[in-house]
Every structure is written in structure tokens, then in C-alpha cells.
Design a protein that fits this description.
alpha+beta; 15-stranded mixed beta sheet; 15 strands
């Protein structure tokens, strides 16, 4: 069973690679000033695909352009993508919001939307060509492509129920790889589009110590019921309805990876990331390289510390500061009043008189 699942995953990667052919010379005019800010907000998010608990979190808005031909004339017509992030000191959370008519065909992933996150691991890893290693599929190894590693998470929702959690699970993690047989929310690494593997799977050997560290869920705003779905309820809401897709993910800031296959995040530090989006435009199945991207180069991801958030928010939170000082003044006034009352009502001491003086 495991061998069959790995074979299917590899076949999918082969189809993706064969389609990854660029048109002409690569050019990029990057909007490098756009960043994604992950503030420290513990206890705020429930990982269920719903966006209500993100309403007070600022996001970064991006145009979606074809990854292989980032021309504004070919932007995704459905709208822009908003990327939000936060962390709670242990895990990092992401919310991707993108407008799109509802499209879902159970079991046919290419007629359903799909998303991916990519992060730089190696110092020489470029956004372009997914790490940028020059080696081909017959020669790429962890030695020949050292420094070009990128970390990826891909969620293809064709077998995933809205609102349900997918990703790392005990069954697949016990096999020591980044797969997800239930919802195809998989953990991968790559050196280039031709050398892309599930965590723990390699071109020449496997390592059973890997895991899928990601978890995630999806939702669409046209879905009215929130009581919980099962597979028999698909397609969950009528197709073609206007609305927005929400994709919500989490992963530990630091993982147990020792294979250079996971990006490691540091509080107060920055990382480089990108987001990809596939959509069945006009109902036609998407193909692997036909995805849109938020930028034609890396986007900076800043992992804020708790102290920096307090400093940053101070000028814009005068109301909170005023309330704090008012409370502090009230407490001090109460304490002073208590001391005055005590001094006024305490028992008066009787002077000591020696018996001999009576």
C-alpha cells in the first residue's frame, strides 16, 4: 500500500515537471517592498478553515500572476490574494484568502483550487526554478545541489472535506515521509522543478526519520452550514457561487528535521517565502506549471517578537494607554483612601503609666 501511494505521488511530480517549461527569457520586476508580518498573537486562531478569528489581523495583498510568465496582462481575473500570518511562540499560522467562484469535484483535484507555500532553506536557493540547482533529475542529490534546498507545502483539496483537518497524521508519519493519504496536504522539499520529493524520500535513498509537520483546512464563503461535513455531503454547496476561498495552515516554528528539508523559523528573525495558487479557470483542469504566484521573487516573512509588537502598537493604541493609566490611578487612589481611613479610625494608644506613679 505504501509503495503504491509513493508511486502515485512520484507520477504526479513527473507530470508536474514535464509541464514546467518557460516561455522565452525569464524577467522579473519584483515588488520587493511587500512583506508578510507574523505578529505574536497567542490563543487567537482555531485551525478550521474559517476566517472569523483573523478579522483583526492585518494582511498583505498581492496580485496573482502566472509563475512562468509574470505579466500583469495575464493576472488571475478572480481577484487578489491576501496573505496573513501570526505565531504563538511555538507554531506559525497562515491564512490565504482569494476570491473565486466555488469549484469542487470530489476526487478530481485538478478541477478544484489548490495552493502551495514555499520557503527558502539553503542560502543559494532562488525563487526562480524552485531552488535553482542546475543539476538534472539523474544527477541532483543533496551533495550536488547543496545550498539550493527549498521547503514546500502543497494542499490539493480534491479529496479534502471543508473544515476538516489534514496534513501530518500518525499513519503517514509512522512511515517516515511527508505524505498525506487522506487530504493531500503534503510536506515536500526541492532543489529545482525536476528534483522535488516528499520529505524523507530521496532520488537514491529514503530516510524514515522525516515527518509531515503541516496541518491545515479549507473553506469557501458560500458554504452556509458549519455543523460539520462528511464526504457523502459533497460538493458541500452548489458550484459556481460567488465568494472567497480560505486556506488555513500551521506548523511548528522549529521542527525535528535534520535532513535540510524543513525551513526553520526564528522569533525576531526573517525568512523568504512564496505562495502559489491553482484554479480551474472556465472549469478547465489546471496543470502543474499553470499556477499563479504572489510575486516573481521571494517575499520577506518577518517573525515578530512579543516585545516588538508592544513597542510597535504603542503609538496607535492611545485609548488602551489612557485606560491603563486610569486604572492605575484608581488603584493608587483606593490605596491612599484606605491608608487615610485606617489612620483616622485606628484605636488610640494609651500611654504607659508605671504602677509606682499611681
Amino acid at each position: 500500500m505504501l509503495r503504491a501511494l509513493l508511486l502515485l505521488s512520484l507520477l504526479g511530480l513527473i507530470r508536474w515537471v514535464n509541464a514546467h517549461q518557460e516561455r522565452g527569457e525569464w524577467t522579473c520586476e519584483s515588488e520587493s517592498e511587500i512583506r508578510v508580518q507574523a505578529d505574536y498573537r497567542p490563543g487567537l486562531v482555531t485551525l478550521d478553515g474559517l476566517a472569523d478569528d483573523w478579522k483583526d489581523i492585518d494582511g498583505s495583498e498581492f496580485s496573482l500572476r502566472p509563475a512562468l510568465d509574470p505579466d500583469e496582462d495575464h493576472e488571475y481575473a478572480g481577484g487578489k490574494m491576501t496573505v496573513k500570518a501570526l505565531h504563538d511562540g511555538m507554531d506559525v499560522f497562515f491564512l490565504l484568502q482569494v476570491d473565486g467562484d466555488y469549484a469542487y469535484i470530489n476526487g478530481d483535484s485538478k478541477k478544484c483550487p489548490s495552493v502551495a507555500l514555499m520557503f527558502q532553506i539553503g542560502g543559494d536557493a532562488s525563487y526562480h526554478n524552485m531552488g535553482g540547482c542546475k543539476e538534472g533529475p539523474d544527477s541532483c542529490t543533496k551533495k550536488t545541489c547543496k545550498g539550493h534546498e527549498v521547503d514546500m507545502m502543497h494542499f490539493s483539496i480534491g479529496t479534502a472535506i471543508p473544515g476538516r483537518l489534514y496534513g501530518g497524521n500518525p499513519i503517514d508519519n509512522s512511515n517516515g515521509n511527508g505524505g498525506d493519504r487522506f487530504g493531500h496536504l503534503v510536506d515536500l522539499y526541492a532543489w529545482n522543478p525536476h528534483c522535488r520529493y516528499l520529505d524523507g524520500i530521496g532520488p537514491s535513498e529514503n530516510d524514515s526519520s522525516a515527518q509531515n509537520n503541516w496541518k491545515g483546512a479549507w473553506w469557501h464563503s458560500s458554504i452556509s452550514s458549519q455543523s460539520g461535513f462528511v464526504e457523502e455531503d459533497n460538493p458541500y454547496t452548489p458550484g459556481g457561487q460567488k465568494g472567497a476561498y480560505y486556506f488555513e495552515f500551521s506548523r511548528p516554528l522549529r521542527t525535528m528535521d535534520h535532513l535540510q528539508q524543513d525551513a526553520q523559523f526564528t522569533i525576531g528573525g526573517s525568512s523568504k517565502m512564496s505562495v502559489a495558487f491553482w484554479y480551474p479557470v472556465d472549469g478547465k483542469p489546471w496543470h502543474g506549471s499553470g499556477h499563479y504566484s504572489i510575486n516573481c521573487d521571494w517575499v520577506q516573512l518577518d517573525m515578530s517578537s512579543g516585545s516588538s509588537i508592544l513597542t510597535k502598537s504603542a503609538p496607535s493604541s492611545n485609548h488602551d494607554i489612557t485606560g491603563t493609566f486610569a486604572l492605575l490611578f484608581s488603584v493608587i487612589s483606593l490605596c491612599v483612601s484606605a491608608v487615610v481611613w485606617y489612620r483616622m479610625h485606628r484605636p488610640k494608644s494609651v500611654p504607659f503609666t508605671p504602677i509606682g506613679n499611681l
